Amino acid sequence: MFGIYDQMREAPGDLTYPLPWATTPEASFVDEPETYKRLLTEAGFEIVWERSCREDALSAFQRQALPQPGAPLPPLGLHVTMGPGIIERGANFRIDFERGLIGPYEIVARSRAV
Asked: How far is it, in rounded angstroms, from Cα 87 to Cα 70?
């Protein structure tokens, strides 16, 4: 079995950079789930199941408080491992998520050779 859980394109439109995975459009390769599934199939995998995780992410965002600009960062958080720039990157992701451009998606596949 092989699983992909990643941000994927949900609609066309310009993304707001920097994002958690890329600082510029040239460094971002996020695509639609159909592209991932096609490439997996071409590589010899069979799609077992897939799902959008949009509702899970929306629920998490509604429970999450964003830090206020200029406020001190808490002692623990993503900024510890990803640097203080993650605050802006995360806010941009949330903007694009709320605009319906990107969202988390999960695909599980297995090799047809097994």
From this structure: 11
pTM of the complete model: 0.78
The residues, any chain, with a CB within 8 Å of residue 1's CB and separated by 6 or more, are 48, 108, 109, 110
Give per-residue pLDDT as tens, 91-108.
Answer: 899 999 999 999 999 999
Stretch 49-77: mean pLDDT, rounded? 80
- For residues 19, 22, 28 and 34, what is the CA-based torsion angle, rounded to 10 degrees? -50
For residues 25 and 15, the answer to whether their CB atoms sit within 8 Å is: yes
Class of residue 47 by CB neighbours under 10 A (exposed 0-12, middle 13-18, buried 19+):
middle
Tell me the torsion sign for CA atoms 23, 98, 54, 88. Answer: positive
